[in-house]
Amino acid sequence: MFKLDGKVALVTGASGGIGSAIAATLHAQGATVVLSGTREEALKEQVAALGGVRAEYVVANLSDAAEADALIGKAEEKAGAPVDILINNAGLTRDNLALRMKDDEWNQVLNVDLSSPFRLCRAALKGMLRRRAGRIVNIASVVGATGNAGQANYSAAKAGMVGMSKSLAQEVGSRGVTVNVVAPGFIVTPMTDVLPDAQKEKLQSQIPLGRLGKPEDIAAAVLYLCSDEAGWVTGSTLHVNGGMAMI
Amino acid sequence: MSEIADKVKKIVVEHLGVEESKVTPEASFIDDLGADSLDTVELVMAFEEAFNVEIPEDAAEKIATVKDAIDYIEKQKAA
Prior knowledge:
The structure holds two protein chains of two kinds.
Chain A: E1 8-12, H1 17-28, E2 32-37, H2 40-49, E3 55-59, H3 65-79, E4 85-88, H4 103-131, E5 134-139, H5 143-146, H6 152-172, E6 177-184, H7 190-193, H8 197-205, H9 215-226, E7 237-240
Parallel strand pairs in A: 1-2, 1-4, 2-3, 4-5, 5-6, 6-7
Helix pairs in contact in A: 1-9, 3-4, 4-6
Chain B: H1 3-16, H2 37-51, H3 57-62, H4 66-78
Helix pairs in contact in B: 1-2, 1-4
């Protein structure tokens, strides 16, 4: 089950905690993975960690529309085959209370977290439609559904991603292409490691399953949605949050 | 029939899986040949690839029949 032999998967934000776990999981199931991110050194290390086999990388800055538009083509060049699986995982946060939020903080987050995934979906779908097969998994967030003080921009982008995915799923379903969302809860990454212990404990107390999430928890959900076995699942959002929000 | 017309017809037959006899110049992709809106987008993509032309969005919207497609491509090729 859940084998991806012969498939090419592009993972954006692959140098981050969740992105690298997704790439490693898809790779372990047989996929050729193309890692994209902004930090070349980190991507190189990732490729090396995967044994340098069936693994490539492309440096891309997704805040640049032209780079986002070109990424699918570059990935296919590197892999030597079309992209069968697209994982829109790259994202950034610029947290601030709305009253203090600058236009720039709003625009930057919407651009990287919502517009660039759209660009990548549009570019990838062309080939997927022609081949009558394809998997897109967009990585959103629990805050897209619940909201979060200080994250009006990020929550809006992630909620937007869910609506976008549902629309795309309806457009391309008849061609055997699925578009789904994984919405992670609170995951342990270098970004969250720096939080004070007291705050981590408080977060943990709100999670029925009693621990913070691991990147691998998210990767497993992504793998399912990428697999042939998930062929009758589209337009759905899989919440992976330890029960923190049951939606 | 021109070479372009032949090729257009072939693409339409292949893509929509319809009988060749139904693909007359006047045939409308949606009304006569059973295409949905995504089919028309895919047809335009297929024409672009096959003839190495670019069909911009506003031109693509006007291509409703087999003849529309042939005329547009012939014009592009002649230019």
